[in-house]
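Dear colleague,

Thank you for sharing your sequence with our group. We've completed the structure prediction you requested, and as agreed, I am returning the results in plain text so they can be pasted directly into your records. Please verify that the sequence below matches your submission; if there's any discrepancy, let me know and we will rerun it promptly.
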Amino acid sequence: VVVCLPAEAKVTRYLTGNAADVNPPLFGPAHDLGGGGTDWDPAIQWMIDGVRGCTSCATKVDVVVLRSSGSNGYNAPIFAMTGVDSVETLVITSALDGNKPDVEATVRNAEVVFFAGGDQCDYVRYFKGTAVRTAVESVYARGGGVGGTSAGLAIQSEFVYDGCAGSATSSQALANPYAHSISFTYDFFLWPNMDHTLAETHFVVRDRMGRLMAFLARQVKDGLTGWALGV
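Please find the predicted structure tokens below.
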């Protein structure tokens, strides 16, 4: 009998800056919630400054970028921002990765965590319920920053449209809020300021008002909440 075991997952790391842990006092928490498309660097800088508690002091922080695909595109622009000691991107492509002690330690030691865009279903599969998810929560709990854009935004709300069954359009969602392509994930993150919310991405460019209304109505109709807000 031949038993084939899955290959061990491997985390791809990209480090820019100082590898040592700076561990400054923190003055957050802070969120940067980006809708997708072009990143708004001043918003990321605002989150970093909120965590540092200043705009022009000498305090520096370590930033970790989490991805489920892609490369190190955020390293250079974030490292160039004021108050950044290092930027390390971790590309995690398996739930096995999300439970590795060295990966958890890297995230836990950060002062700011930023989720890149991609596929929010990958984030659900690779991060939900893992040690890395708990480590992100610990960063926020001690006054750090947690941000994200596009798929990295979608997972920040209490109710998450996960896209695991396809990508619904507004016309499809309004015609049938229970279409196969509409699926949700719960209990990913439960941020104090994001309760009763569902975060929608690429809102204007992809004409998503209709599907956001259908998604919010689903939360009420399905008994998850008595009211819901779209972000």
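Summary note from our side: The beta strands are 12-17, 30-34, 61-67, 84-91, 112-115, 145-149, 159-161, 184-186, 197-198, 229-230.

Kind regards,
the structure core
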